[in-house]
Inverse folding.
């Protein structure tokens, strides 16, 4: 069975259960034929207390009806720093994905959106 790493910046989590449900539905169908692990990073900015508090409530790992979903954090700079999101997203995930690959040697990366997911997948 093919092993697929799904990388999506838009995927449901405990605090936002309707976020990206269209991605979740597609992945559930794919999971019937493939072994799937989802990496759904969440933006993090140390000076934003409200965003930090909300994101802290999302567990780092969830089991969503048989789907293993990881929620690593990535540095996201507000306003004019948003243009750096793709690079910061990539840099935040390099080590995480390398460690994950040891326990889940995936063959394919399914990056849902071209930016920032596709950029990070390259």
């Amino acid at each position: 069975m093919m092993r697929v790493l799904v990388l999506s910046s838009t995927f449901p989590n405990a605090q936002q259960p309707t976020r990206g449900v269209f991605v979740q539905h597609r992945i559930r169908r794919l999971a019937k034929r493939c072994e799937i692990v989802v990496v759904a990073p969440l933006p993090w900015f140390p000076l934003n207390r409200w965003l930090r508090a909300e994101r802290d409530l999302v567990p780092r790992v969830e089991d969503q009806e048989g789907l293993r979903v990881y929620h690593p954090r990535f540095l996201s700079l507000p306003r004019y720093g948003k243009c750096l999101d793709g690079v910061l997203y990539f840099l935040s995930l390099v080590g995480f994905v390398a460690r994950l690959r040891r326990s889940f040697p995936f063959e394919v990366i399914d990056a849902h959106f071209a930016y920032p997911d596709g950029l990070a997948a390259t």
Notes: The CA atoms of residues 104 and 118 lie 20 Å apart. The two ends are 23 Å apart (CA to CA). Residues 2-121 form one domain.
